[in-house]
Design a protein that fits this description.
The protein has 154 residues and is mainly beta. 6% of the residues lie in helices and 34% in strands. It has a single domain (22-152), classed as Jelly Rolls, CATH 2.60.120. The chain has 2 helices and 10 strands; from the N terminus they run H-E-E-E-E-E-H-E-E-E-E-E.
């Protein structure tokens, strides 16, 4: 055993093999600044991934497993759809997510579309194998429509 490993104590929250109790309820000195992703119309997605327009190439997921999505709106009149890009296929498609056991594959999966948001709502969406994710609006967005996203591997 090295001297460094004798004195090192793992202190990060990180992945665990068993549940960890929630104990940290104090103030946080340093935290990440929230940022929004750019939403685009479906026709603005770049199949060649060479657009200079914000959001048109989607966002690299770095092979993460889950997309954490926070959508904020004040009137519930906007719709957000998630589009997936796989390098193996070379094009964009509307993402479908599992919702349960249906009699058919079509009954088991539904389009990843979010509408009627009034206030802030947070979702966790499985994105296994998706290389890039795009956030597509229905064309009626206003300044109160905000989308924030992050990814995790577990």
């Amino acid at each position: 055993m090295s001297i460094a490993s004798e004195f090192h104590r793992h202190s990060s929250w990180g992945r665990t093999r068993r549940p960890k109790a929630l104990k940290r309820d104090g103030a946080i000195a340093e935290k990440e600044t929230a940022s929004e992703v750019v939403t685009v119309r479906a026709g603005a997605l770049s199949g060649s991934l060479d657009s200079t327009a914000g959001g048109s190439n989607g966002y690299a997921t770095e092979n993460q497993r889950f997309l954490h999505l926070q959508i904020e709106d004040d009137a519930g009149d906007e719709t957000l759809s998630l589009y997936a890009y796989n390098y193996a296929f070379g094009n964009w498609a509307l993402l479908y997510i599992p919702v349960g056991a249906g009699a058919t594959a079509n009954a088991t999966y539904v389009a990843a579309e979010f509408s009627g948001i009034n206030g802030k709502k947070q979702f966790v969406v499985p994105i296994e194998g998706v290389d890039r994710i795009a956030f597509v609006h229905d064309g009626t967005v206003d300044v109160n429509f905000k989308v924030r996203a992050a990814c995790t591997s577990f």
